[in-house]
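Help needed: design a sequence for this.
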């Protein structure tokens, strides 16, 4: 019976691999290690934080528009403008130990937090603060 499943699995895996065409390389600037500040094509001036794979593909970690970010050896943190209310700033952070090319993003990325909750996360876990970025040209 194992042979039937093995024969069925080979075409299924081939179909999955054929459908996994790598997206074009991300444009933007490196943050640290595999983390990259990428231009968000969907939002004018909207930059996002992604995990850059060796293929150049950009796996979203923090949605646009990123206003500020920070990092250390354990975390990457960011402030973003809320999509629902441009006057609201939300905070996210990535736990680098849980992140990677095949990471469970729900485990690796924490947030969104309001400012008070983010300060609490910083105190509890040692998450770095964020620094504003220059406006994109």
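Sure. Designed sequence:
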């Amino acid at each position: 019976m194992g042979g039937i499943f093995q024969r069925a699995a080979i075409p299924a895996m081939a179909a999955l691999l054929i459908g996994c065409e790598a997206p074009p390389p991300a444009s933007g600037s490196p943050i640290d290690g595999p983390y990259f500040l990428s231009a968000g094509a969907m939002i004018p001036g909207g930059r996002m934080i992604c995990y850059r794979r060796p293929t150049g593909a950009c796996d979203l970690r923090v949605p646009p528009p990123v206003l500020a970010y920070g990092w250390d050896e354990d975390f990457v943190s960011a402030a973003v403008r809320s999509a629902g209310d441009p006057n609201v700033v939300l905070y996210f952070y990535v736990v680098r130990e849980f992140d990677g090319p095949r990471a469970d993003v729900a485990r690796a990325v924490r947030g969104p937090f309001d400012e008070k909750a983010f300060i609490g996360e910083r105190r509890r876990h040692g998450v770095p603060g964020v620094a504003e970025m220059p406006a994109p040209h």
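The chain has a mean pLDDT of 80.
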